[in-house]
Design a protein that fits this description.
Strand order of the largest sheet: 3-2-5-6
Helix content: 55-70%
Low-confidence stretches: 23-41, 342-347
Strand content: 15-25%
Number of domains: 3
Structural class: alpha+beta
CATH class of the largest domain: Mainly Alpha
Length: about 350
Amino acid sequence: MNKDRTIKSSLLFHCRLTALFKKHQVTVWSLVILISMIPCGSEARTKRRKRKHQNENISKADTARSQALKLVKIGVRLLRTGYYVGALDKFQKAYELYPSPKIFFNIAQTQKELGRYVKAIQAYEKFLEKAPKDTAKDLLVLAKERINDLRKDIAVLKIEISQPNAQVTVNGTPYGTSPLNDPIRLMPGAHTLVIKKKGYNTEAMDVKLNPGQTISRRVALTRPKQKLVEKPIVYKTIDIPKKGLALLWTGTAITAVAGITASILGGLALREEKKMGDSSLSISERLDAADRGDLYAKLTDGFLISGGVLAIGTLCWYLFYVRPSGGTKRIRVNSKTQTPRPSLGSSTTGLSFSF
């Protein structure tokens, strides 16, 4: 049923559209032409919008240009009257509004009067680099002359670094990473050069520069040494045996034996002496006792003398050799090792030009 209704509605619409065409004598071709004109109208509207945007941009550029010109004129007046900081501010704001390369000339002139010769040279170089073709030749020649004059009042530092990608700073101001394509231009005086790179020791040096001087410095970056941690040293006390004890005891024993022997022989000599005075013994027995007594006495004296000499020698051996030796000694148990822990002209006038 729904399908039949759709077909009937389509046929009814077709019949009414055909009747309308016949009534107003509208042909199919005129309808096609009308439809084909729709895109053309769309393209025209797009072009009109583009022109409108272009005109708006031109209008904005003219407004920015006129404002920049006003700032330049104010800056020139300030420059002529000696208000260099204010003049520089006006010129920089003018360049932000309308980046004309010609403004660099006035910026350079102001930086020169402020004594910032390096920045003045940079501004002059930007002016020469970006100046349009219609720039007056006299102005270009003047900028080159000013650059040559200012180079006499600055110093140049050339740095060669052994490692690439090292950060270079002078007085805290970064100047890029190694290798440096251009030398560093600085004002004369003392400067602090610092070179840093991750994984290497930071190198710092003081350089003193004179006007017109060019010096070169080569910096070799080194890796940090590993920190060494000392192990605690452990000591222990040991007993040192006495030296010469065997000889000491031998001498003592021989001295003792000699003393004992001398005592025995002395006792025998006394006994024979008593026999000599015994009247009950015959003369021959008393003479024999006298001979034996003399022998025992001589032997006793020999042993006593030998024992005394040996005793003195043993005593000296003990005092001068055995006694100083021995005792205790403190020695180190572990070795003392270290382990790494991973560880220009006088004119002060600016230019009031159009751009």
